[in-house]
Write a structure and sequence with these properties.
alpha/beta; four-stranded parallel β-sheet; 4 strands; about 40% helix
């Protein structure tokens, strides 16, 4: 952080951000130089940031960049089985997409689909809109390879979810409900340090 602060004082960068940091690391980094944004995974499927990271960001005035707000495509409700992924798809290495976990995780999609229908949107739009509804300091960054999905995801900003929809989603997608870790074991050791 000290080296990054030097680059900022030299005018080479405008803002400092950090990714996948634990709350204590974020506090130490922010004490060295104000952090503009923390980037970490956050979605209906991955809500562990709510316990500590989001409160620390709110306390310190740090923006939160939520990557994978669609749960790596799972919350688009188009992946129901490992066979839906191409042979070379990296998600095949992610425990949440392993067959034994997918069988459990797919059950969550019924609520997502019915809430999306009630809100008049797609499941993906609903998932992004839910992230947007959490705080004005959270910016979701859904990944996409197609322009039509980008446009569909962007339309989520215009949704205003009903309290009933939010309650139904949060009652189904409680923190820790997803079967399997978000990364393989080796990668899990390198996050939230």
């Amino acid at each position: 952080m000290g080296a990054m602060a030097d680059l900022k004082s030299e005018g080479k960068i405008r803002h400092l951000g950090i990714s996948e940091a634990a709350p204590d690391t974020l506090r130490r980094a922010h004490a060295t130089h104000p952090i503009t944004a923390l980037q970490t995974e956050y979605s209906l499927w991955t809500r562990d940031a709510e316990a500590e990271l989001l409160p620390v960001c709110a306390e310190l005035g740090i923006g939160y960049v939520a990557y994978a707000p669609l749960g790596r495509g799972f919350l688009s409700a188009t992946i129901n089985d490992l066979a839906d992924l191409e042979e070379n798809d990296r998600r095949r290495d992610h425990p949440r997409f392993h067959a034994e976990n997918m069988a459990q995780n797919v059950r969550l999609l019924d609520t997502l689909r019915s809430c999306a229908e009630a809100e008049g949107c797609t499941p993906a739009q609903l998932a992004v809109a839910w992230v947007l509804s959490r705080s004005e300091h959270i910016v979701p960054v859904p990944g996409t390879r197609r322009r039509k999905w980008l446009q569909q995801n962007a339309a989520a900003v215009d949704l205003s979810l009903s309290p009933q929809t939010i309650a139904a989603l949060e009652n189904t997608f409680v923190a820790g409900v997803a079967a399997g870790t978000r990364y393989p074991a080796g990668q899990m050791k390198r996050i939230n340090l």
